[in-house]
Structures
1.
Amino acid sequence: DAKTTQPNSMESNEEEPVHLPCNHSTISGTDYIHWYRQLPSQGPEYVIHGLTSNVNNRMASLAIAEDRKSSTLILHRATLRDAAVYYCILGGATNKLIFGTGTLLAVQP
Amino acid sequence: GAGVSQSPRYKVAKRGQDVALRCDPISGHVSLFWYQQALGQGPEFLTYFQNEAQLDKSGLPSDRFFAERPEGSVSTLKIQRTQQEDSAVYLCASSPDRGLLTNEKLFFGSGTQLSVL
């Protein structure tokens, strides 16, 4: 399974944009890039996913590099409720989401 | 409720006891997944059902772990002769069709926290 690399932690200020990076240099042509987040004491929550083109939804935007070896999750205006662990995961060939340790995002008021 | 429901929310077991963890997926969801999450780690895949068929059990750590979904809806994860290393949060997820294979998102429950003393 292709692996992803994320920073262990990041900090942001409330109401500012947050860019969460993810490297996936061994991504295959059929791998989708998935982002999930996990708030304390809850199960993971879907955020966004994409294959090649940038994607937007009500929660976030996903910017995918042209060579697909990296991607960035963009939260346009961070709120305190966005403090969570964010996981970048490659998947699609099988039905397994292979989670890493993710990025712990802290949001300061 | 509209979400994935898991029970119990917390379970304390003595080493050697058998436990059963229940998952009620979203109604009508075809795919159901079990994950195990140790403290400070990301979730790890255990097993996957499509309706009542267990199509992938490659993540089950030993033959003490057994999962079933006999009628294609509710699922039970059973752990026999629990050991301390089984202490973790057990997460259940469901998706409408074939999950990642049909480009779907997974809906997770809040998990069952198992502590083995």
2.
Amino acid sequence: ELKVEQNPLFLSMQEGKNYTIYCNYSTTSDRLYWYRQDPGKSLESLFVLLSNGAVKQEGRLMASLDTKARLSTLHITAAVHDLSATYFCAVDMVDTGNQFYFGTGTSLTVIP
Amino acid sequence: NAGVMQNPRHLVRRRGQEARLRCSPMKGHSHVYWYRQLPEEGLKFMVYLQKENIIDESGMPKERFSAEFPKEGPSILRIQQVVRGDSAAYFCASSPRSAVGEQFFGPGTRLTVL
């Protein structure tokens, strides 16, 4: 079974600082997704990475994918309080029926 | 353009009752996925359906759980004889096609079993 691990699980950072969340997965896949979830809410799509070397940026968030290393990163630049949420990465594999395998999540708290 | 809709948003059941969760995919989407999220955990896949077909139910518990996506109407996840361990958030997602592409998630149904 495909396993997806994120680290750190919990992240507390000050406003204005930079940090990176890591997502490792155990089996070859060319597609990785990042979602944001606020408490009690649904998942909001952030990035869709569909090939090796893909890099996407939106505001203070930038995501990248290295399929050879089976690693994706979500980089946060100059964090602000509004970024406080739980971030999930997810991987899918066509051969397994297109289900998404989700990481454990990273709970981010940005402190003023 | 409405997104994925789920109802009810909150559902309280006593042990032994049935829970019925509904999901209407985005317009033009014919693929529906159900996931379960336990507190402080990520989402776990349950079942993948197309209209009138169950494509993959490898994540569904063998007993008490069933899902359908009829030709007309929403997809339904049914849990019979609920137990406390069924308490969780159940999310539905839809996609326009099965291969390559993100899934769009509904607001979820939070089931509490007393």
3.
Amino acid sequence: QSALTQPASVSGSPGQSITISCTGASSDVGNDNLVSWYQQHPGKAPKLIIFEVSKRPSGVSNRFSGSKSGNTASLTISGLQAEDESVYYCCSYAHNNTRVFGGGTQLTVL
Amino acid sequence: EVQLVESGGGLVQPGRSLRLSCAASGFTFEDYAMHWVRQAPGKGLEWISTISWNSGRTGYADSVKGRFTISRDNAKNSLYLQMKSLRAEDTALYYCASDQTNALEMWGQGTMVSVSS
């Protein structure tokens, strides 16, 4: 169960768009559409922002979108706002009813 | 109000056992699969275990397989994690989370486990 690969950090200015990648393998990210994304602010529990690759839970801003190509999933945040500064994690279903997270990406809004 | 509240954490010596609990309220607990996820201080999230709605299917991360056991009591709206042979590297904040859409939709605030002599 190897962790999914995410960039350690990304940054962008308010109003811009950024994309965070999440690379796995054919046995996890590439195997189905069970990729999800979480936002975690300091000292807080994670919050689900994308499930099943591209679906948004009720109440999550449409500035957040997800996609996948092969073994790599991506989270795009458009119209960056200061409140988006956070750590983002991807997660995928893996084999034998397990899950695997990415290492997390720190988003800095400049 | 939908709520998950973890409890049972604390300071424990290496090699000892601990049982975590997660009390669910505000939703139909028996309709959801459940997970445990941990986060070591200053580190990322690590998924460690899952259990289906009826306890028929479980899954464990390699790092805890054979040492940790997940269980649930739908009549008590509760999830458990029995942890044995604890190691220093098990020190973390342990979260429970619910799952109805193959994602971890709702999270508790976590309970801290510290393994040290």
4.
Amino acid sequence: GQNIDQPTEMTATEGAIVQINCTYQTSGFNGLFWYQQHAGEAPTFLSYNVLDGLEEKGRFSSFLSRSKGYSYLLLKELQMKDSASYLCAVRALSGGYNKLIFGAGTRLAVHP
Amino acid sequence: EAGVAQSPRYKIIEKRQSVAFWCNPISGHATLYWYQQILGQGPKLLIQFQNNGVVDDSQLPKDRFSAERLKGVDSTLKIQPAKLEDSAVYLCASSLRSTSGRRVQETQYFGPGTRLLVL
């Protein structure tokens, strides 16, 4: 079966660093995505990892370890606008096609 | 580049009524997805189209939900009849497979969603 786990809620202070973890069990693993979703809005793409290691993009970085079924999203220099849900999504190959399976999301609250 | 368009943005209906949602994907994107997102949960895939053919509808409640993608562009998702538990945001997404060196990426881009409330 497919299973994705991430913390339900996190809080952090403006200017700080926060790490959001995601663990998964899936067959046919073919990449991992992180999306940001503000309340009432659609998810927007943040990062993509398919090989082990760290991908950096400005204030956001994402790490993947395929052998451990583990990823994290690192947000640096937090801003109030980073308050949102962060969705971990695993892409799995099934029946010849890729399918994206989402976790429930981590709701991050950034406070002054 | 225009994003994924969806309409309507909001819909309120009574149970047992019918409702339809429309999606226009990003131009040139061959793959189109419909997701259901219940409050507090991640999006759940309902159906995936490759051009105008269905490649995955394993989680679509086919007794009440139907979807089509005529001519491989726009798509409609219909619920008939609606139940209370269908209250959710219905997200449409599209993607295009791209290759950079040995890295193949197919990022999904989401529309604003249709927020459905069934009373």
